[in-house]
Amino acid sequence: MIFDILTLFPGMFAGPFDESIIRRGKDKQLIEIALHNIRDWATDRHQTADDAPYGGGAGMVMKVEPLAACIEAVKARRPASTVVMTSPQGRRLTHQVAAELAGSDGLIIVCGRYEGIDERIRQLYVEDDISLGDYVLSGGEIAAMAIVDTVTRLLPGVLGSDESAETDSFCDGLLEYPQYTRPPEFAGIKVPEVLLSGNHELIRKWRRRESLRKTRSLRPDLLEEIALNKEDRALLAEIEREDGTCGC
């Protein structure tokens, strides 16, 4: 997978893309990340990439000419890649959206800045808009990092075990179950006995129950969006009895 990132601040990516899972993906040659400074396509000596908005108002807007030239240059080299814009107007980045993006031949990620990007860029080039959530960032660079990270970990071979991605929170619509490691007791709190039993079926069932419990407690809205099977419904009934509540 090739990620082309179009930005006014390429220096922001130096640390995050040189560590952890991203670095592992690069070392395994499973991903390639290319940073493109939009200012390099500006034609004036000051490399101007923004201007005042038509109609007045606060802030500046990213100019159409240098960004269009940058997109066209990258797209010419990667014609099969999808052009994605980071924008608060976009669809929210979820596990399902990340999985969809992971199926792309490549991603060209345009990082927004200032008050926004000239709308003609969206009309002419953008194939998808992605948002991290209902809040405003200083620019799209952090959103681009999130897209690269969440897509990369879904690519086969990047993680130590593909099961790691499959059991992450939101993969099946639920929050992940609690995790424990050594020692078996800390500050008077013991690891649940079932996890020490070696009984894989009991462990699987415990993990599913606790995943349902955590989702019900922290993100009950997610339970309305997924199809629960017979076992899930039975486990939820157990949880409700334990908690002294009544399900609807």
Automatic annotation (TrEMBL):
It comes from the Bacteria. Its EC number is 2.1.1.228. Keywords: Cytoplasm, Methyltransferase, S-adenosyl-L-methionine, Transferase, tRNA processing. InterPro entries: Alpha/beta_knot_MTases, tRNA_m1G_MeTrfase_C_sf, tRNA_m1G_MeTrfase_TrmD, tRNA_m1G_MTases_N, tRNA_MeTrfase_TRMD/TRM10. GO terms for molecular function: tRNA (guanine(37)-N1)-methyltransferase activity. One of its GO terms (cellular component) is cytosol. Belongs to the RNA methyltransferase TrmD family. This is tRNA (guanine-N(1)-)-methyltransferase.
